[in-house]
Amino acid sequence: MPTLSPVPKGSLFFAPMESITDEAFRKTVLKLYPEWDYLATDFLRVPSAGHYPRKYIIKHFGVDLSNDEQIKNKTMFQILTSHRAFTIDMVKEILDLGYPWLDINLGCPSNTVTKNGGGSSLLLDLDLLRTLIRNIRSNFNGRLTAKVRTGFHHTNDFETIIKILNDEGVELITVHGRTRDMMYKVPAVWSFIEKAVKLSHVPIIGNGDVWCTSDVDRMMNETGCHGVMVARGALKSPWMAQDYRMGHFNETSIERAKRIKTFFKEYRHQLELENISDRGLLKQTKSVSRFMFEGLDLGEVHRRKLLLAQTIPEIYAVFESL
Ligand SMILES: Cc1cc2nc3c(=O)[nH]c(=O)nc-3n(C[C@H](O)[C@H](O)[C@H](O)COP(=O)(O)O)c2cc1C
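# flavin mononucleotide complex -> structure
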């Protein structure tokens, strides 16, 4: 496995998002906004019975993207596992397929996931967490990272969690400043990112409620984090990293409309390369555009029209009318 060069300070990460950051989406982002330093797959659930064919794992990362070494080096392959799942089999497969970067999801809050012992519920038993990470580490010689919430019900164990991840050889930790019980309801608590920075020997990436370029600077200044990961803000403005790097801070509604059109033209192209059905195209376009109308004149009107669209021409007529 090639040794990856260290993640530079100030790096910007496009966050993993289930059903969003698939191959077509990441190809669109990589093509239009190469200013994002790192990206992530959404989580691949590790099975508790049987195993996935290799083809399925490759498809999750992306068939074309899997042929590009540079892209592989800048993309976290995220897995979502539990103590019951066949984690080590999956880790070995990922390694064998030549993916150099494995990220462990320790944050997913959904009931379906946590009632099966996955995602954020792995933060409930710290001895088991330590064993899991140790086993993964001893079977994966690429870059191992983790994305973590500040706890499940409370934050009492936060320091211990960061320490365990450090002790067991995790090389970079993304801290989303909310417990599982906070879901998305209250603002992310950035002071936990700062706390992690002070405790950790490995880089801490801050995550939670970065909605615009000035939030990026604010998070770095307030917490001292090594880099910033953006999820919903990046869905709202996939070009955020470009604006950040170019120091372009005030986007007009006209500029925004133009960028939305460009984004969906390329995204459609990428989805069509995968021979997506009309139904799939409609569903993905609605899902991916959910935050993009914010900041547009009459944005809410356009958003509602788009949600009501039933055909491909209808949906693209909405974009043309912006
Ligand atoms: C639609 C959606 C899907 C998500 N899927 C994942 C996922 O697959 N893996 C993960 O680690 N986090 C996932 N998250 C959490 C985000 O990566 C991020 O931690 C969270 O949204 C907080 O960051 P933000 O305030 O920038 O949105 C998801 C979030 C959203 C909104």
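# post-check
The pocket of flavin mononucleotide is lined by residues 15-18, 20, 42-43, 78, 105, 107, 147, 176, 207-210, 230-233 (CB under 6 Å).
Residues 254 and 296 are 8 Å apart (CA to CA).
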